[in-house]
């Protein structure tokens, strides 16, 4: 709404000249504030479209968007405009409450995107955290990644005791010599489908990747992302047991599949320009 209003800011001043009862015309300073707010919200809007633009967004999409928001808020904290500083300070306090600490699931999922691998956290973490904390987080994510892989490797070997085809590491994690085709539209790339198609080549790593990428990070509806209703998780939802959370997350899909109900496809809204003649 604000971005549309900016396009018609000259109309408001003309309306004030013609209508004596119109007393809420935004000043030049007000429009400057609106423009700065729109610049900040554009990053959030872009992240929302990427994450919520899919019916089932995989967890590898989140780290890059969280990184963009984090860098933006840190930069705007020192904005010359006091109004922007005060606004960003409140936004950053809420952001740090949920995303201030290193999220292992989000980080490992980003690494399992074959286009990124370890490079993604080696690039993002030094810009998101202080030097010492960044190094600690990188080491923590790497250790967790190897630990999870070793567990999958042991399960694979246990089920293939008579097979000499694969060693414990089979250079899956240690080498990570995985390259995804960079041709075409990157927004149409689906890491989950890529790993599914690469099952025969990366037997252990593909199973691990598919399990991790299938874990949902958010349950917030896309239409409620910018709601002013204060969508904060209450103490009842925050204290649910893992089994209950899993049942709630999966229950919707199970019910839709049972009754043959499909989600409505999201259709892009076409913008229509209307020319109004002013006498």
Automatic annotation (TrEMBL):
Give the matching SUPFAM superfamilies. Answer: Ribonuclease H-like (SSF53098)
- In this chain the hAT-like transposase RNase-H fold domain maps to 52-152
Q: Domain HAT C-terminal dimerisation spans what residues?
A: 187-254
Q: Which domain of life is it from?
A: Eukaryota
Q: Which GO terms describe its molecular function?
A: DNA binding; protein dimerization activity
Name one matching Pfam family: hAT-like_RNase-H
Q: Which InterPro entries match?
A: hAT-like_transposase_RNase-H, HATC_C_dom, RNaseH-like_sf
Entry's PANTHER family? BED FINGER-RELATED, ZINC FINGER BED DOMAIN-CONTAINING PROTEIN RICESLEEPER 1-LIKE
Protein name according to UniProt: Zinc finger BED domain-containing protein RICESLEEPER 1-like
Q: Which organism is it from?
A: Durio zibethinus (Durian)
């Amino acid at each position: 709404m604000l971005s549309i209003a900016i396009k018609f800011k000259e109309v408001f001043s003309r309306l004030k000249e013609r209508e004596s009862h119109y007393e809420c015309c935004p000043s030049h300073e007000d429009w400057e504030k609106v423009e700065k707010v729109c610049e900040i919200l554009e990053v959030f809007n872009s992240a929302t479209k990427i994450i919520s633009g899919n019916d089932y967004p995989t967890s590898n999409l989140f780290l890059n968007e969280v990184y963009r928001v984090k860098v933006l808020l840190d930069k705007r904290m020192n904005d010359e405009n006091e109004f922007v500083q005060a606004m960003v300070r409140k936004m950053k306090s809420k952001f740090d409450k949920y995303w201030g600490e290193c999220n292992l699931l989000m980080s490992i999922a980003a690494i399992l995107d074959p286009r990124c691998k370890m490079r993604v956290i080696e690039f993002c973490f030094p810009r998101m955290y202080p030097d010492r904390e960044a190094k600690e987080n990188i080491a923590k994510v790497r250790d967790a990644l190897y630990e999870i892989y070793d567990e999958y490797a042991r399960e694979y070997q246990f089920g293939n005791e008579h097979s000499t085809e694969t060693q414990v590491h089979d250079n899956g994690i240690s080498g990570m010599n995985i390259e995804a085709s960079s041709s075409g539209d990157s927004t149409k790339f689906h890491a989950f489908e890529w790993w599914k198609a690469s099952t025969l080549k990366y037997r252990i790593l593909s199973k691990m990747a598919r399990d991790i990428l299938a874990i949902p990070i958010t349950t917030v509806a896309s239409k409620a992302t910018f709601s002013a209703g204060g969508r904060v998780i209450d103490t009842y939802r925050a204290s649910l047991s893992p089994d209950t959370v899993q049942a709630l997350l999966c229950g919707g899909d199970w019910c839709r599949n049972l009754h043959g109900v499909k989600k409505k496809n999201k259709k892009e809204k076409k913008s229509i320009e209307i020319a109004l003649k002013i006498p």
